[in-house]
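[Automated response] Your request has been received and processed.

Submitted sequence:
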Amino acid sequence: MKAMLCTGYGSPEVLQFSEASKPTPKDNELLIKVQAASVTPSDCAFRKGDPFIIKLMYGLRKPKFAILGVEFAGTVEAIGPAVQRFKVGDQVFGMSPNTFGSYGEYLCLAEDKPIAKQPSNVSAAEAVAICDGATTALIFLRDIAKLQAGQHILINGASGAVGIYAVQLAKYYGATVTAVCSTANHELVTHYGADYVIDYTSSDFTQSQQRYDVVFDAIGKSSYGRCKHLLTANGSYLMTVPNLGIMLNMAWTSFGNGKKAKFAATGLNQNPANLNFLAELIAAGKLKAVIDRRYRLADLAEAHRYVETGRKKGNVVIEI
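Generated structure:
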């Protein structure tokens, strides 16, 4: 099969278009013909081996799994004899956070991993796009913040892959949404549900006089210290980037009532139930894919370079 191999840690040039062995499914696995994958900042981090903990977990000198890529959408081509939830021909989408593999024409994954049947009203590209940011936004808003109808939420980085789905999910849960983005993305975030917009190119959102039940920093560019005064008495500050500051603030605010700083490794908490829930929202038209650019598999290095500019809106998709 064709695949992009990561020959070592480094710049996008370490990604090489090559031949690889087509995998064979084990008893509890699906063989999935991949039709679409995504490129995220996390994928770029795995390619670079930065932060260093990636090398400790996935190989010191080069990636343990040469075919990177986490999110995928495709067709079940074969199943192991123990598989019960899926059949050959099913259109599926999901995540392979432990062994990667979506930057190839085929991958194998156990059926108990985060996999769901793809709604019939979206394409593979749209399904994988939603799988990218919406899974993270869902855990932060529903499980960590426990966002409720009538609450006010500010989303920093509202036009990004996590932020644009956080906007949509926050509206689904009945919250009033203030989006922070650039002038160029004002129309985008309002189209997907933002009630108010703060343009970070002309205003510092941390100077706002408004108070929020939740401040969600979807891009990790702020801090609890800078945003604490924006929170209501029992408000929560959510951060997607695991830096030392958020960890210390999380520990400090964990005691008693009052304002809280919170972080979660959402990639480790994904499951089929989350994807099935998102699939229901997609099928009902309550969650829409936002695709910035599409690339061929052979152009994966170019896609990585674009994601690393930090200017993408929504998702970058690889069509295979």
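Summary generated for your ticket: The chain has a mean pLDDT of 94. The CA atoms of residues 119 and 283 lie 6 Å apart.
If you did not submit this request, please reply to this message.
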